[in-house]
Structure formats: C-alpha cells, structure tokens
Amino acid sequence: QVRLIESGGGLVQAGDSLRLSCAPAGGFSMGWFRQGPGKEHEFLAAISRSDDTSHYADSVEGRFTISRDTAGNTVYLQMNNLVPEDTGVYFCAASRMVLTTVLTAYDYRGQGTQVTVSS
Length: 119
Description:
Largest sheet: 7 strands, mixed
Number of strands: 11
Radius of gyration: 13 Å
Number of helices: 0
Shape: globular
Low-confidence stretches: none
Distance between the termini: 39 Å
Mean pLDDT: 95
Strand content: over 45%
C-alpha cells in the first residue's frame, strides 16, 4: 500500500500562484485532480513514469505545470494566475501503468489539500 501525501495548499488571492507537492511518486505515472465545491472530480494534469511526458486539461494548460524533482520521488503542480474557479480539494494519484486522465485507472490517491482562491 502506498500512502500519498499532498502539501502546499492554502488561501490565496486571484492572480496568485501556489505550488503543490505529492510524494512518494517514484516509479509511478502521477496525476493531479481537484474537486470543487459541489462538483465531480476533475482531471488537471498527469506525468508519465517512463519519460516524464505530461498532459493537461484544457482548463489549466498554460497556467499549471506538472513536474518531478530530480530524484523522481516528488511530483509538483505549479499553479499560476489562480482564479476563484480553481478553488477545491486538490489530490494526487499514482498509477503503475501509463499516463492516464481517468481517476479510476490509478492505483492510489491521496487525501488532498485545500486550495481556496478569493476574488
């Protein structure tokens, strides 16, 4: 069993940036998702375990960046130019297989970290 731990959430103003972290990520394709108030979960970004190929949801491409540290054990989600609609619980997920946007295809998921963006 793998226990994923996210960190880096908080309360920010519109236009601010945050960087979320998730570990352990070594050997996994990793994804970031969020669940806004009263909404279903939403795929945001994923990075492959083999060559760090990344993929983004249209809603965040150009504002969010997924990356790994040099050791490959921590995955980050850099979020820039945040807007109130980005408010939600952000969680990471780990897959032993290929990069995917489908949460149910992941083997593990974290509990999440709250991001609140005020206007």
